[in-house]
Design goal:
The protein has 9 helices and 5 strands, in the order βαβαααβααβααβα. By secondary structure, the protein is α/β, with parallel strands linked by helices.
Length: 225
């Protein structure tokens, strides 16, 4: 399994698709998966509550609208959101990662378990909910990760000015600086700790998409050798 994590807009999805195309041309069985927070049950909860309590905010993700417009309300429903999201992540992991791995596929996954853990810690601090290292949520996610294992983690990053240009170009939402800072600090730290030294940090600010792709292929070839 090969995981792509990093800041929003750094090109994780693009590099994942390029690598998947390369592998398929070599007739390798490959699956692309996304294990972000806010999927399935948690996403529907976010959308419904954002439309009910956050007015007509359409400039940010639903969960960000709740955080900014109704912080006290979000704190009250945080445990429910967290429970639904853990269930969603577990189901996604089972059907899009664990079972395909057992069937012999190479899995390319965006975000993955380190990203889920860092997102939960980030949101729990805003909600003023203590999420300890030995909590059920974190230990459960770590057990999932051990089931999947991985070959390599790629952490993609770029300067904020570059990321903002990319968000604007693709018509995406703006992310807040505190969230980007969290990804560069907490997510990178957790990824390194869980990667068993199989992590490559790539600053894509001054590199083309193709140059980044070549770095990724070179790293994977060194792992094979």
């Amino acid at each position: 399994m090969i995981a792509f994590v990093g800041t929003v807009g750094s090109g994780k999805s693009t590099q994942m698709r390029l690598l998947a195309s390369d592998l398929r041309r070599r007739r390798v069985k490959v699956r692309v998966s996304y294990l972000k927070t806010g999927h399935i049950f948690a996403y529907f909860l976010e959308v419904i509550l954002a439309r009910m309590f956050a007015g007509k905010r359409r400039d940010v993700y639903p969960i960000r609208a709740l955080l900014e417009e109704k912080p006290r309300f979000f704190s009250r429903i945080f445990r429910l959101w967290l429970a639904l999201d853990v269930i969603s992540v577990a189901l996604k992991f089972l059907f899009s990662i664990y079972l395909p791995l057992k069937l012999g596929y190479i899995i390319l996954v965006e975000e993955y378990i380190p990203a889920s853990i860092s997102d939960y810690i980030y949101l729990s601090k805003i909600a003023r909910f203590t999420l300890r290292a030995q909590s059920f949520v974190i230990t459960f996610l770590l057990k999932l990760m051990r089931l999947g294992d991985f070959t390599q983690i790629f952490f993609l990053d770029a300067e904020n000015s570059v990321l903002k240009c990319r968000w604007k170009r693709r018509g995406g939402f703006d992310e807040r600086n505190d969230y980007l800072d969290m990804q560069r600090a907490l997510l990178l730290s957790i990824s390194r700790r869980l990667s068993s030294n199989k992590l490559l940090y790539i600053d894509v600010s001054k590199q083309t998409v193709e140059e980044t792709h070549q770095l990724i292929k070179k790293q994977l070839m060194s792992e094979v050798e």
